[in-house]
Amino acid sequence: MKKYIYILAIGTLCAWSCTKDSEFLDREPTQLLPQDQVFASESLALSVLADLYNRYYDFGTVEDWSTLSNFNVAFWSENGRAGAFENNEYGYGDWGTWDYAYIREINLFLERCAASTELAEPIKTRFLAEARFLRASYYFELVKRMGGVPLILETEEYDFSGDASYLRHPRETEAAIYDFIIAECEAIKEQLPTDANSKSRATKGAVLAMESRAALYAGSIARYGENTPQVSLPGNEVGIPSSRATDYYTIALQSAETIIDGTAGAYSLYTKKPELDDNFASIFYDKANNPEAIFVEDYQLQSGKVHGFSIANQPRFGAEEEEGGRINPSLNLVQSFETLDGDYAPLPNEDGVGNPIYYDNIGDIFEGRDARLAGTVILPGSSFKGKPVDIWAGYQLADGSIVSGDARGQQKTLPGASSATQVVGFDGPINGLEFTAQTGFYIRKYMDPKAGSGQRGVQSDVWFIRYRYAEVLLNAAEAAFELGQPDLAASYMNQVRARAGITSELMGSDISFDRIVHERYVELAFEGHFFYDMKRWRLAHLILNGVPIDETGITENIGVATKVHTQPYGFWPYKIYDPGNANDGKYIYKIVRPIKVTGADRFQFGNYYSAIGQDIINNNPKIVKNPNQ
Amino acid sequence: MKTFFNKLLHIPLLVVILFNVVSYGQQPLVTVSGQVKSQEDAMPLPGSSILLKGGSTGVVADFDGNYEIEVPADGTLIFSYIGFQKQEVAINGQTQINVELREDTQALEEAVVIGYTTQDRKSITGAISTISSEDLENVHAGATISSGLAGKLPGVSFRMADGRPGASASIQIRNMGTPLYVIDGIQQDEGQFNNLSPNDISSISVLKDASAAIYGVRAANGVVVVTTKRGRKGSRNTVNINSYIGWQNWSRFPNTVNDSYKWMLGKAEAEVNQFGTTAITPEELEKYRVGEEMGYQSFNWRDFIIKKDAPLTNINVSATGGSEKINYYLSATQLKQESVLGPEFTFERSNIQSNVDADISDRLKIGVQINGRIETRDNPGIPGADDYWLPRFAILRNRPFERPYANDNPEYLNDIGHNETNWALHNKKIGGYATDIWRVMQTNFSGEYVLPFIDGLKVKGMYSYYIADRVLNGHEYTYEAYTYDEENDAYNVTGGSTNPWRERRTQKIMKNVYQGQVQYNGQFGDHSIEGLFVVERQDQRDQEQWVHSVPETNSLPLIYFSNTDAYDDRDDQEARIGYIGRLSYNYKDIYYLEGSARRDASWKFAPDKRVGVFPSVSAGWRLTNEEFMKRILGDSSVLYDLKLRASYGILGDDNIGIGPYDYLPGYNYNQGVAILDGNPIIASRDKGQIIDNISWFKSKITDIGVDFYLFDGKLSGSYDYFYRERTGLRGRKYDILIPNELGYGLPEENVNSDAQSGFEGALAYSGKIGNVTMNVSANASYSRGKFISSYKPIFNNSYDEYRNSLEGRYNNIFWGYTSIGQFQSQEEINSYPVDIDGRGNSTLLPGDLIYKDLNQDGKIDGYDEAPIGYGTPFGYVARQPLINYGLSLSLAYKGFDFTADFSGGSGYSFNQEWETRNPYQNEGALNEIFLDRWHREDPFDVNSPWVAGKYPPLRFNNGGHSSYNKNSTFWLHNVKYLRARTIEIGYSLPKGLTEKLRIQKARFYVNGYNLFSIDNLSKFGIDPEINDTNGLQYPQNKFVNVGINLSL
To answer: Would you list the DSSP string of B703-740?
Structure first.
């Protein structure tokens, strides 16, 4: 009897714990949403759109500090990056992009969202317009880097028939892609909110800003492409006929003016702070009612979306972490900022006959400069997060010899002194020592002044501005200049310059191509414009010509569009140690080339448009290669 | 709809019907009694078992070896005892049968654990190696089981790249990949295996061939089967105490130049080499040479950081015994391992094991196994993911003139500019803490019921529940670093971190295993048959949360919501079902045949791709039992036993590199966060192409082997050759080129294949010379993988094919330049026809490396690379040596015993990189190896003559120079090593004394592990098994242990 009880007990246990095999094997996923559910809910559809926003392509962002500061606008003070200053040439494949998976997913979103019967019509309209904005934005990125590309506006499927030739699409002309972007902007601008307070989603203002920039690029390629006939393809996949320049410039001016006249929302220059350099720096971190930002990539503390730009780049001394100091803006950039009178002038470190000029205070040499300089760059003698930066390269003794150190803030005993004293700044510069200011400067743009922004656990939520009002003004100025309206151009440019504290106004007759180039260089430094501006004006091969620069090459030709830009230079303050002499304790400045800068960059014709990968061409023989590669 | 229960019931029914015909008739019963003794010393064998042949009747002898059994008068009794040969005695009406069992030196009767059951060694037809508790117990190689397996098992490759407290070695079976672990019948992972207490292990079997197929879907890389100890029925209660204490020191670690003067001189030299000038003046150098002024002294960071003789203590107490109905094994172990980084870096583990079996009735047995452990890794919280990294890095990062404390005042952490490598910070007082605790508990309930009506048929059931709980708490404190101001005698804060990093990770893993088994054993004259059917279900749930906060203070331990800025949550499940059948046949112990099949289903694949069937067959031929062989051999015992065997099986692997839900379409939620109009929106992304056409890859393994015993069994050995081919590896079909502009690629399919093949052998001698008992054994194995084919590979050109094709090639080939020497003079450089550095040789100096211009185009570039070695680490995963070998010697004389084990490996490469290649890497310390370098007689005079050395002339932290930026035969070393593992001397108290003390046994020993190594990496200060190319991995330790074994 007992054994039957056992069997029964075991049997019951078994039956109780058992299910069908297939049920046992089916385990529910925890992070998977079925498609029909997604497009039945506004918040879930927005969740998909959020991912498409997140994948927006930029050429350098606060998440990619090196790309942002490329082409010798700065030196990269990080050992692992030294190679960038040792080599001469860029790879043909550099800066390439071909993310048709992104395009496919936007197209999928457009198709599925359009087919949804459960989303309210106004919501749907806005979502669709936003997705089209993102798609046009990526085609804009593609055309800037690759030239004309296949224009895929609907999703396709491979039918496993063994013949994929029906999926092969040739490259469109470069102009056709620009035309597509402009047409899309026109088509969606009224479907999006006119709301200057909506910064991180597509708005009418964002669309017009993109249209103005795209048209301006197309116009300048049409006009200045004539200077580089090599950079073109017979099918015009690369190159835009010069006859189209005027049309494009006209569109650029129109769309910019639509923003300027206020029809796209209440945008204006940011002028909230009394100190002009602080005011300029604030554009990039003041997110409260900032009228200048038009379209941004936004971040938020404690949300999971933050970035480490301040960790990577804030002054190394006094940083929250044992990090910082990577972007060191070059002297090439620093001295391009005009004096407040509007003059181009090198920083006065020597008198006319080559004797050093002695300064009482370390920062005096930068007095009287365009406020954008101190707003963009952390200068010796300035402060960050309430703490003075400590940038000075060492002591110069009476005999001209230098006493400096190998470590930040190192102490040594000076001749005649009884105890050791600090002989070099805690921020350097120490030649070759990473994270010290090897050019003598750190970056201020995007630097987050909040305490804790340099903590790895906290990071920063400073936004990255993709389109801002000042650029729109400069777009308008450039387009007006190219359309033969220099007075109009001057009026737009003066607005930007007045905000920077420059006291002299430009007249129409002052406006030249070099002026346009210069103003964008200083106003929009580190914002991802320099690279594309050099390319569309076909200046890149001239200013990055592979020829090393000497000291005079740095101080001459300021404000000239074709000034050579192949190497980043530094500007180092030294303290005078000469007890008893009047100059004891004063500062002098020396122009130096950081020791790791051994190469001189050369931009070849084949670099104007990035190489299309061999695998892409293998898979689609209709794709023609870019020129000069 | 069939339930699991239904299926389970159907099978025994079927078996009952099949075998019902073979019941025995009734016989008259007699009572037989007697005593079982050992032949050698005539000592009684308590607990030996007496079984009626072909029946289920059996008893166990008492403490004095006496037994009594009621059996049919015409039956045959089988007497057996572990370690002794079985003996069969026909009853023939006798009522008193005394037997003396012979010690089983050949271990032919040894029970070997195979899949789900055990088998006698002599009838094994697969490639199975075993290791017993005795082999494990004298290895004291660290905290984990795997660390003690070096050289122990033929065909098992070993590499212990990291030796920190609690570290494990990487072991693989025939280099096939990470094996499956089965512990007391339950499939487990590597961590479970490693953290058993070695004292609790009874045996480890390694299934290397088709014999693993019985474990189906996860067995493609072989299976390690572990059995824990159990008590013996009718044995006396014994308490064992095993305890030892050991002292650890690093085997090897790169040495640095601890002299500020030499460091500075080298820097001056490096700068002159690079730029022609240096800012360092001879006067400045002289100050470093004198070394008295502040800032010019020298400091030995390595001695400051590394402590000598870090202790490891282990104590195990176990109690075992049994009555006639119940047997038990209870054990508790406590282990604590400190690090050479000091007593704050520790690993601690407590294990318990309780195995109890009870006979409820003659037919019903039940058992409960409980094992649990608490595993604690505790150390200071140090920036970076690995808290053991920065202290080691510090040794090669900190320069000799840097000092840990400002003004040498231990109250003030010195600001050295890179304070994260200041060892003075790496402690719980200033730095913080990180404590990672695993608490694991597992219970197995099992029942076994011998069915009535059919002899030899029994059913078994087992249920196992496992729960593991992990809590990791970490807090890296904010801290301040000071600079001493001599003038004002002040300590100024000039560095440090204001970033507190507080994290907590909690994880729970829960596993259920359900097993039902039917077993049949039958003997029909000369034919014996064994059948096995198993149903197995397992599921697992793994939940993990991680939270990060930025606390206001270092001193409070709790996490508050308002300080929290990250929270991750995960909940994953797995489920698998297997149906297993096996049939073994044996004719007269001459011919063996075995077949098995497993039908497995895994949750990972699309519903119609879930099921796989994995069959295997094997056969053995024991020649020495053949009549004709017996005639030939006659009385000679030279060839004592010889068996040929072969096996073939198909094994599976569901770990094919896809995720569990890749077959479902939809949107993946939580793909980052976007801030839209000020609100954080969790992003979702379309999954893209679903993968519903992929299933297991198949692993077909063939093994041919021979087992032999010579000279009365004193010399034994076995050899195996194997070949494993895997088909259905993931790959793409490229018949059709799909434009990238489509936005998605063709889905991957099961199309590629590779192979692993090799051989292994083992030889052992055991015998006596006079009073000295001696065991010597050796084993060696070789196993290498080859890629066979992908689906119609496409190459852009013939160079592309030469360089990038994998087809038919060995895996893991290392490409690099061939260094054909070093320049001897500037003249040689000036006239050298090949452009070595890409700059017309303008950066070269005497001593710089010359590379072979393979394609003779006058310049050195990527086209001059050729295969120069074996694959180096794949990411952070070490490559296993292709060749592994082990040697073991043990001697016993009276109370003394001596053991010496060696093991070695070769067939893998070490590539000097970073700190072991670039002088002044990170501007840090100078690796001592670079003292032997090409340099000028006068470093300040560019025209002074060159002095030859081993390494190229110094450059300061310049990995970009042509001598340093290329992998070449100069930096790559194909490693060969032979290492002393265990060397132990023990002494056991003589019997007379132990009897007086009323104990069973007392033994004391002194033991060394890893005492020396003979290899080709010693000249670089690098342990031959480390993986990190910078040489900075935590190396294995040398151990010196003393210990005691007591049996009460």
So the answer is: EEEEEEEETTTTEEEEEEEEEEEEEEEEE---SSPPPG
